[in-house]
């Protein structure tokens, strides 16, 4: 409870992005409390400039001198072959003095907790945590902060905050991912650039058509735009007081790929908004936190139009920027006329030389940089709203065409000026006290906000013959702090009248005091101790691995079949399935399992000696978690507890809250990418663990040494799960709970510019699930997979017909059975592949089995 009270008393933290040192300085000089940035390795923005160790050390020193914290992103999935480099990197970060690391990989989190718990850890939004249950699990892992999923509402934030002592961080401004972060494999599957490895190609910003199974473009008449997966930018500037009220501590601005001027402008404006919250609370006033002109600056520096995301409700189409996936600028006016190399514009906003403007014509968009401006035939340096001005223009534009300002030269100049080298303004106030008597060395006490130091003069003070030491002269000398991060706010002087001290002594006292103030005072784990901890961790990992290998003989290699409804379950059993995963998402396109049907299915499977597992949904919000908890408590009373496959950390925590010994398995959505993650879930009691579908065959072979590994070898590859539904938003009037449910009337697909049709499914909670065009098929690789020692292969058949399920299960069962060591005879894949091709005419992909994402 004390921790909860302490958390509520914490001031809001403004957290800025920095993809370069310039952007870092822009953030610090414009008032941020903390900066998050990435190193050259292990960062989710691999294409940003990022920081090498020397630059990082320089940045940390600069930030700490100004009482700004630095958080370093290590927020990707790490492969086993990278752990050696990672171990060195983590110690370097600790030695440099970073304030925290931001993590996605649960194996890395467990590693840090064991080898260097002195390094504070924050859970990245890539961990897909949006419930109090998930936060509770992270707390047990040693995290001090969690970055909540962007889909978390204000009401859910409040519930989470009331139940945890962890700091909560949320995004408040910048680009939105349309998918739940950490659950998007779209860029990975389409082009091999994985968001979980920091190389997302942003296919969500491309054009798509919404079509049905008759290949009809369902939005052809609406003319809303073709960027059906491109959201607007988040802007919660006017919600900051509410965020503070519900218990959020850190306000995160997205933008490590943005230029320094963007960072400077956004951070300056959010700093002003946060400061005004305090002013309003003191005066009991209620007013907008930013003026209209300041809101205009936020728009001007970059926007795809703004939204408050899921903060209040699901906004449907109002979340999206269908017509444009990049900066749209601000409305400047309309073309009045065009003639003789000049263009007249009726202005709705101001215009200056150097501004970038864009014309939206019937033929597309054309951009120019403004040179000379004329008003009433006279050259001018500014055009004002309401005026009609002329500019040089050699393109084609028509009267009435809209004009937008995409770059404001004066705003950019103001931003650049704020972080210009040698013009640093962010400094900390000092109080100094100079005391002493004639014949003694003078004492100078210097007090900053966090430390106090004391130094003495080199020589004793003497009685002055001509020029005694005055207050003004002492202040003048002691305030010469130059490029240091300090300024002299107050000087107290308690010395004998008429004494003197050489100016060189005063200057030296000042220098020594500042030098002492800037010294690092924190405790650092020495490298030898760190190496010893690492060796103990490696020995423990090897012991767990070797101990587990002996258990593999107890696990019979099997074919798992994941199905989502009773009819396909019966088809799987009819085909001889000996292990079935039932449940998962409840599609609106078909009838799913009720709780009673799940119970009945377990009883039927037990009679047939079939291993049955209840597979839980990939994503749940707070209310849905409570509903599932009720069902799990009912299931706990069954004669035999059902085995559960968890898909997120919240579900695992719920299960353990009911019965810590409840048998469970781990699904692929928990991104088990390395031995550390695998060992973590094994230690918690996981009986089987489905490995990440982004693993290369060599990585799979390494992890297959462990017992209970499951690999998806056939079926639908889910690329994305989102609270946004393109069908409901464009056809069903989706907003909040309101929707016409068009998703139940026919099948839907998103067609990309290459004419590939990606299947869309909507679950009972109105989430959109986007699937790959082609079916994953590793039938031809089964012999290789069997030789790896993989315990179980899975057929992911949650959208298939009963006939497709029955034929697929029969083929894979026969092949897997033939490949058992004890079996004689030679298996070939030719006949099976021909039959699979006839069942699934859409074609196949090998996924990442050969290419991987490293």
From TrEMBL:
GO terms for biological process: proteolysis. Keywords: Hydrolase, Protease. Coiled coil: none annotated. This is Putative protease. It comes from Desulfosporosinus hippei DSM 8344. The keyword Transmembrane does not apply. GO terms for molecular function: peptidase activity. InterPro entries: Pept_U32_collagenase, Peptidase_U32, RNA/ubiquinone_mod_enzymes. Residues 403-520 form the Peptidase U32 collagenase domain.
């Amino acid at each position: 409870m004390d921790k909860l009270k302490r958390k509520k008393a914490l001031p809001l933290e403004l957290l800025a992005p920095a993809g370069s040192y310039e952007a870092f300085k822009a953030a610090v000089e414009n008032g941020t409390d903390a900066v998050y940035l990435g190193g050259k390795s292990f960062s989710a923005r691999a294409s940003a400039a990022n920081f090498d160790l020397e630059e990082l050390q320089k940045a940390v020193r600069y930030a700490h001198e100004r009482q700004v914290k630095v958080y370093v992103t290590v927020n990707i999935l790490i492969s086993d072959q990278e752990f050696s480099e990672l171990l060195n990197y983590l110690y370097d970060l600790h030695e440099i003095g970073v304030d925290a690391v931001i993590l996605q990989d649960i194996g890395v989190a467990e590693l840090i907790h064991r080898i260097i718990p002195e390094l504070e850890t924050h859970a990245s939004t890539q961990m897909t945590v949006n419930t109090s249950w998930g936060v509770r699990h992270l707390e047990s892992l040693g995290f001090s902060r969690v970055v909540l999923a962007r889909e978390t509402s204000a009401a859910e934030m409040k519930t989470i905050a009331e139940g945890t002592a962890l700091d909560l961080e949320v995004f408040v401004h910048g680009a939105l991912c349309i998918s739940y972060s950490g659950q998007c494999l779209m860029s990975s599957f389409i082009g091999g650039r994985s968001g979980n490895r920091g190389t997302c190609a942003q296919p969500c910003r491309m054009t798509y058509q919404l079509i049905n199974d008759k290949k009809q473009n369902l939005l052809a008449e609406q003319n809303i735009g073709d960027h059906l997966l491109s959201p607007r930018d988040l802007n919660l500037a006017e919600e900051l007081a509410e965020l503070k009220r519900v218990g959020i501590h850190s306000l995160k601005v997205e933008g490590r790929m943005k230029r320094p001027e963007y960072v400077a402008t956004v951070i300056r404006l959010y700093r002003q908004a946060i400061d005004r919250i305090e002013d309003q609370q003191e005066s009991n006033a209620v007013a907008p936190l930013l003026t209209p002109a300041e809101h205009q600056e936020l728009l001007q520096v970059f926007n795809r139009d703004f939204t408050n995301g899921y903060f209040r409700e699901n906004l449907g189409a109002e979340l999206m920027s269908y017509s444009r996936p990049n900066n749209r600028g601000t409305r400047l006016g309309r073309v009045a006329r065009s003639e003789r190399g000049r263009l007249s514009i009726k202005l709705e906003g101001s215009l200056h030389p150097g501004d970038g403007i864009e014309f939206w014509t019937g033929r597309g968009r054309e951009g120019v940089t403004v040179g000379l401006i004329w008003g009433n035939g006279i050259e001018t340096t500014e055009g004002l709203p309401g005026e009609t001005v002329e500019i040089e223009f050699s393109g084609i534009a028509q009267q009435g065409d809209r004009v937008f300002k995409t770059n404001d030269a004066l705003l950019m100049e103001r931003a650049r000026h704020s972080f210009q080298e040698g013009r640093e303004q962010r400094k900390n106030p000092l109080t100094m006290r100079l005391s002493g008597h004639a014949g003694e060395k003078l004492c100078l006490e210097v007090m900053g906000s966090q430390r106090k130091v004391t130094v003495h003069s080199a020589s004793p003070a003497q009685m002055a013959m001509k020029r005694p030491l005055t207050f003004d002269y002492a202040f003048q000398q002691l305030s010469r702090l130059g490029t240091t991060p300090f300024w002299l706010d107050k000087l107290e002087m308690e010395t004998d009248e008429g004494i003197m001290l050489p100016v060189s002594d005063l200057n030296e006292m000042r220098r020594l005091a500042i030098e002492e103030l800037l010294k690092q005072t924190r405790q650092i784990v020495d490298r030898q101790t760190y190496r010893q901890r690492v060796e103990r961790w490696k020995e423990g990992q090897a012991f767990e691995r070797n101990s587990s290998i002996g258990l593999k003989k107890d696990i019979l290699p099997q074919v798992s079949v994941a199905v989502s409804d009773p009819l396909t379950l019966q088809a799987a059993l009819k085909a001889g399935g000996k292990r079935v995963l039932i449940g998962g998402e409840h599609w609106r396109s078909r009838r799913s399992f009720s709780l009673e049907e799940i119970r009945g299915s377990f009883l039927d499977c037990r009679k047939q000696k079939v291993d049955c597992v209840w597979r839980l949904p990939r994503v749940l919000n707070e209310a849905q978690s409570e509903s599932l908890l009720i069902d799990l408590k009912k299931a706990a009373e069954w004669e035999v507890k059902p085995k559960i496959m968890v898909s997120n950390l919240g579900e695992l925590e719920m299960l353990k809250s009911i019965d810590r010994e409840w048998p469970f398995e781990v699904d692929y959505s928990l991104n088990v990418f390395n031995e550390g993650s695998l060992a973590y879930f094994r230690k918690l009691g996981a009986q089987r663990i489905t490995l990440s579908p982004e693993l290369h065959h060599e990585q799979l072979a390494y992890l297959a040494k462990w017992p209970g590994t499951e690999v998806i070898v056939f079926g639908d590859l889910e690329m994305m799960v989102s609270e946004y539904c393109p069908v409901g938003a464009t056809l069903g009037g989706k907003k909040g709970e309101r929707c016409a449910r068009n998703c139940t009337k026919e099948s839907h697909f998103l067609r990309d510019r290459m004419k590939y049709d990606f299947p869309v499914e909507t679950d009972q909670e109105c989430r959109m699930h986007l699937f790959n065009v082609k079916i994953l098929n590793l039938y031809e690789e089964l012999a290789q997979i069997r030789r790896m020692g993989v315990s179980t292969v899975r057929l992911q058949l949650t959208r298939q017909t009963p006939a497709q399920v029955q034929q697929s299960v029969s083929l894979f069962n026969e092949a897997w059975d033939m490949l058992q060591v004890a079996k004689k005879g030679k298996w070939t894949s030719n006949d099976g592949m021909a039959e699979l091709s006839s069942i699934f005419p859409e074609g196949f992909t090998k996924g990442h089995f050969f290419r991987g994402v490293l």
